[in-house]
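NAD(P)-dependent dehydrogenase (Short-subunit alcohol dehydrogenase family): structure tokens wanted.
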Amino acid sequence: MTDDTPSTPRRTALVTGASRGLGLALARELSARGWQLIITARGAADLENAALETGATAVPGDVTDPAHRDALARVANDFGGLDLLVNNAGTLGAVPLPPLAAYPLDVLADAVRANVIAPLALIQATLRGLRERGGAVVNITSDAAVEPYEGWGGYGLTKAALDQLSRVLAVEEPGVAVWSVDPGEMRTRMLADAVGEQEAAGADDPEVVAPFIADLVERRPESGRVSR
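Answer:
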């Protein structure tokens, strides 16, 4: 006798910046929990390795490129839409970290494009599927968005804008869960570039942080800003 009970469709997530750091750790965690994944990052070779490890569909490219975002949206549509969008890709901005009085404005504009405009554009491009599937958006933020750390003004203001974007989106799209997640300091290349290898070595491994985010998605608390 055959079992005619319909199978539950697998949940689909798009994770940006997934070739290393938190993005890679989260891709591993979601894969282990049965999610099917679309992953993207600029480094094609590292991204392909991540795809082989997690069974993900790799779409290499730069999220600040509108053509690449269109490609990601097409792949998401081929999967029937997203249950989860993780806007993790981003840039630190100017390094070494300059005071705002000396911040190069062209670099700041690039940081806004990467950390604010690209996440919003991906949300816009995938929102129809997220609405239909009662999905969720995770925007990775930072405590630099809310604390006045010297030298972190450029990066912090982009993350503050991302926080506000998340709050407004949650009000405008009540059927979609929206969290801006502050993962705390992590042992990543970005942190090492900002504070040096020695200080960064004492931070948590991204593999410790990824289960916290995956648990958040599965618990589905009220939309808002979440700190680990």
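The chain has one domain: 12-227. The domain at 12-227 is CATH 3.40.50.720 (Rossmann fold).

Cheers.
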